[in-house]
Design goal:
Number of domains: 2
Membrane topology: Multi-pass membrane protein
Organism: Desulfonatronum thiosulfatophilum
Number of helices: 18
Radius of gyration: 22 Å
InterPro entries: Poly_Biosynth_Transport
Main location: membrane
Largest sheet: none
Strand content: under 5%
Structural class: mainly alpha
Order of helices and strands: HHHHHHHHHHHHHHHHHH
Subcellular location: Cell membrane
């Protein structure tokens, strides 16, 4: 999936313009927000519950479909207002088209949740990769035909169709007709709390793009969106496989405090080990990476990419807060922490927009770090994992990543003719220095051998 994301970024950046990406991003942010309601947190409820009956799953399946159709129709009704909000008439039809994707996805929510519950992660990975190949092929074809931003819209719809179709093939479960008193009410309540948090989190993560689209325009949004997307690529690639395993694993030990602490320590350590050096490398080699991935016409992305990589440095380790609250069944607390973080984040971004895209990027970074302590303290009151445990777990990766970054920031870049070779050699050398520094810390080698390598062997 990492390769597919990189390939999609590299190819489409050379076929489409910042304006094209900006127009689709304007709609995608709002449609994506509405699409959160189609899940209603019910997929996570299916994965999280210790035991679940066929009747409960069937009820959730029909609920998801009903909600998805309602959300899709609501998006269609809102299309003229979205166009009016941005003062872009072409957005009306883009919005209506993307609403189809929302409805289609609703039909596969519970089937995908069942695959996650039974830990068929290779199957889910195949579905995602194959769907992305279909979507990229559609995008390339229509971009070459001169469809501009419509290539991205049609790609999104095709990904949804391919994903749901494959999910049905690999999970041929047939739901029963909905019945009353199936016991799904409690799961629905859990899902509502989770959905509430997800909605607040989505607002937090996308209000920057909404404000940029409104006050700066599609070109500025296209530049910012590409910077944000490239930063998120390694974050997504690292988080997805680890998080998929972790949700199921933590749900099974939710009543065992000692095991929760032990597993949480490993989760934070491992995810920090893989994410922090990558973000440090992105900060140091931002110019080369953007030139390689997007091409010479996207040089305005470089400073934004460098700033946002600072937020990416701590983002993945902080996911332990939401992970533990959800898997331990603390859905109300999960919602409350979402209210806290989203309120302050909105405040920071609203200030940052006065200084353009650069101001928004700095506001994004500042809010990420300032809110981290309240999030950790709040989490520690409700689950058996403390703020001290968190900082102990990230200490070695932080030290090794920052020191490696400082060293390479002052070193000259390799001088190969091919930019790809320059980035590859720099990356391998950076990784070598990071591991060397990490293993030089007290117990660093034994941690690398017993904890880091163990998770690598697991995914093999």
């Amino acid at each position: 999936m990492v390769v597919m994301n990189i390939l999609r970024t590299v190819v489409l950046a050379r076929l489409l313009t910042p304006q094209d990406f900006g127009i689709v991003s304007m709609v995608s942010v709002i449609v994506g927000f509405a699409a959160l309601f189609k899940d209603a947190g019910l997929s996570l409820a299916t994965v999280q519950k210790e035991t679940i009956s066929p009747g409960e799953i069937s009820t959730l399946f029909w609920l998801n479909i009903a909600i998805s159709i309602f959300v899709g129709l609501s998006i269609v009704a809102l299309a003229p207002f979205i166009s009016l909000f941005y003062n872009k008439p072409e957005l009306t039809y883009v919005t209506i088209a993307l609403s189809l994707s929302v409805v289609i996805q609703g039909f596969g929510i519970q089937h995908a949740a069942l695959l996650r519950r039974h830990m068929y992660f290779l199957t889910l990975g195949f579905i995602e990769i194959f769907s992305s190949i279909v979507g990229l092929s559609i995008a390339i074809f229509f971009a070459l035909q001169g469809f501009n931003y419509w290539a991205l819209v049609l790609s999104t719809i095709s990904i949804s169709i391919a994903s749901v179709s494959l999910t049905y093939i690999f999970c041929p479960w047939i739901p029963n007709l909905p019945k009353r008193r199936t016991g799904a009410r409690k799961m629905l309540r859990f899902g509502m709390h989770v959905s509430g948090y997800n909605i607040l989190t989505y607002i937090t993560q996308h209000v920057d793009q909404i404000l940029i689209g409104k006050f700066i325009g599609p070109y500025g949004l296209g530049i910012y969106n590409r910077a944000h997307s490239v930063v998120q690529m390694p974050i997504f690639a690292i988080r997805k496989p680890i998080a998929n395993v972790s949700v199921s694993a933590f749900s099974r030990i939710q009543n065992e405090p000692d095991k929760i602490k032990k597993y949480a320590d490993k989760y934070v350590l491992i995810i920090s080990f893989f994410s922090m050096p990558v973000m440090a490398f992105c900060f140091v080699y931002s110019e080369s990476l953007i030139l390689l991935l997007l091409g010479k016409n996207w040089d305005e992305v470089v400073p934004l990419f460098r700033i946002l990589s600072l937020a990416g440095f701590i983002q993945l380790p902080l996911t332990i807060t939401s992970l533990l609250l959800v898997t331990c069944g603390k859905s109300q607390e999960y919602l409350r922490i979402g209210i806290l973080t989203s309120t302050f984040f909105l405040f920071f971004i609203s200030l940052g927009i006065m200084w353009g895209t650069t101001g928004v990027a700095f506001a994004y970074v500042a809010s990420t770090y300032i809110l981290s302590l309240p999030m950790l303290f709040y989490m520690s009151k409700h689950v058996p994992y403390t703020t001290k445990d968190f900082f102990t777990s990230i200490a070695r990766p932080v030290f090794a990543s920052v020191l490696s970054g400082l060293i390479f920031f002052h070193l000259p870049a390799p001088c190969f003719e091919l930019l790809f070779l320059n980035v590859l050699c720099s990356g391998l050398f950076f990784l070598f220095v990071f591991v060397l520094i990490f293993t030089s810390t007290p117990n660093g080698f034994s941690i690398l051998k017993n904890d880091i390598f163990s998770i690598v062997r697991h995914f093999k």
